[in-house]
Amino acid sequence: MDFLLGLFSRVTANEEVARLLFLGAIGLSTVLAVVALILLMMGLQDPVQRRLALIKRGHLGNTAGQEAPGNLQLLLERVGQRFGSAESAQKSVTQTLLMHAGYRSSSAVQMYWAVRLMLPLLLIGIALLALPMIPKVSLIMGLLLVFLVAGIGWLVPALYVAKRKQLRQGRLRAAFPDALDLMVVCVESGLALPTTIERVAEEMSVGQVDLAEELALVNAQIRAGISSTEALKQLAVRTGLDDIQGLVSLLAQSIRFGTSVAETLRIYADEFRDRRTQAAEEMGAKIGTKLVFPLIFCLWPSFFLVAIGPAMIGVLRAFG
Questions:
Q1: Taking Cα atoms as reference points, which of 185, 186, 122, 115 lies closest to residue 157?
Q2: Exposure b/e, 279-293, CB count within 10 A at least 16 = b
Q3: Among 121, 219, 234, 243, which one has the highest count of C-beta atoms within 10 angstroms of its own C-beta?
Q4: How far apart are CA 3 and CA 10, in angstroms?
Q5: 14 and 162 inside one domain
Q6: Which portions of the chain are predicted below pLDDT 70?
Q7: Which tens digits make up the pLDDT trace of 213-243?
Q8: Is residue 96 a part of any domain in this protein?
Q9: Cα–Cα distance list, 259 to 34, 183, 245, 254, 262 (Å)
């Protein structure tokens, strides 16, 4: 309190005006916070509004096997719906990003925008409480710190989702060769493509959970009446991997022209192994360039210190 009052006094150069501004800011912020909480909680506690929100999410009351979301989750979804991006293109990009990261819920976009909006406000409040503990901080430095904290709160969810997407795609890319080999074995043994996908999903459910879930979802879509080609295209869209997109294109052509699916899978498996070998060779060729910076900043200073250090000491002693 005294710290913030001192900041206002420095700006206005008048203690009475600073006190009035300080009290007005506290009163206005308190009223706005209370009104916002009341409006949000009234919308959640209203039985009609809550029922509509649950029906929109797909939770139909006491349906077995479904767990209704809590008030906090509904609150975040409502905030995301109020303040989220209204542009369909931006929403589509965000939905694709969350889908690649593994968030396929219907409310994932709303939750994402709610967290991106509320986390900076929470960090700003923490920063304002922590400012009085920092000695000799000016008004400009305090404002810069608050803006820095708000920027960090805005960027952290996006960085987290991007990192999660990268890790998940890495796991899918690493598990894809094993799945491809299993598919080749199953198809050559006489199994149909849907049965092959189901068997591969069962075999990989222990070690590679992400790919097993995606393949199980493909199998469920095929059983629901979606064609194999369309289900595989949706798999490529959900994962965002070029390798799976290439496999889908080859399988679509094989199904369309009536060629052997087993031969198509075997050819693609060989091509995929060649691409993986080329990627490993490319990474190995980059090692020499990447070692330049550690050599310059870590090894060469020590080398010059050992090689030239004694001579420099002798010169300093001679001309001392």
A1: 115
A2: eeeeeeeeeeeeeee
A3: 219
A4: 11
A5: yes
A6: 1-23, 25, 35-91, 320
A7: 888 888 888 888 888 888 888 888 888 888 7
A8: yes
A9: 67, 16, 19, 5, 9
pLDDT at 62: 42
Choose among 297, 246, 245, 298: nearest CA to 268.
246
pLDDT, residue 164, reads: 93
Residues 197 and 253 in one domain: yes
Yes or no: say if 117 and 79 are a contact pair by the CB < 8 Å rule.
yes
Residues 6+ apart with CB under 8 A from 218: 197, 231, 232, 234, 235
CA dist., res. 183 & res. 116, Å (int): 41
Let me know: does 5 contact 22? Beta carbons within 8 Å: yes
In this structure, the answer to whether residues 74 and 163 fall within a common structural domain is yes
Question: Among the three residues 121, 142, 167, which one is the final residue of a domain in this structure?
Answer: 167
**What distance in Å separates the CA atoms of residue 122 and residue 73, rounded to the nearest whole number?**
17
Q: How far is CA 92 from CA 80, 95, 182, 214, 275, in A?
A: 15, 5, 34, 20, 31
Query: In terms of domains, do 147 and 124 share one?
Result: yes
Same domain, 196 and 176: yes
pLDDT at 205: 84
Same domain for 163 and 173, yes or no, is no
Q: Using CA atoms, how far apart are residues 11 and 14, in angstroms rounded to an integer?
A: 8
